[in-house]
Write a structure and sequence with these properties.
110 residues; mainly alpha; 5 helices; flat
Length: 110
């Protein structure tokens, strides 16, 4: 387990302190739904995971390796969802997309 995974586990344990097993299970379901919705609504935020070495180097230098047409299309969709456009390097500038995904998950779960 790497350091990030350890920190995530600590956070998960802390969030569930004092919760019943049922409440903990519901929180797990909510988080799973949020992740699924985030991926559905904002797949562009996962593009960097598939970057080649050259693309990753470009992003570090503030260069967006995605095509201008794709970036414009993505930013238009993001604007309609009330989320800021991607930064100059093609990465999100804040976590507003996670807020949108959380709100949608809560709406779906009723």
């Amino acid at each position: 387990m790497n350091r990030a995974e350890k920190e995530m586990l600590k956070k998960r344990i802390e969030e569930r302190k004092g919760l019943s097993e049922e409440e903990s299970r519901k929180l797990d379901q909510l988080e799973e739904m949020i992740n699924k919705i985030h991926f559905e609504l904002f797949p562009e935020e996962y593009d960097a995971m598939m970057d080649s070495i050259a693309d990753a180097n470009d992003r570090r230098q503030g260069i967006n390796p995605m095509s201008a047409d794709y970036t414009a299309e993505v930013n238009s969709r993001r604007q309609k969802l009330g989320v800021p456009p991607l930064g100059a390097n093609g990465l999100p500038t804040d976590d507003a997309s996670w807020t949108v995904a959380r709100e949608e998950a809560l709406r779906r779960l009723g």
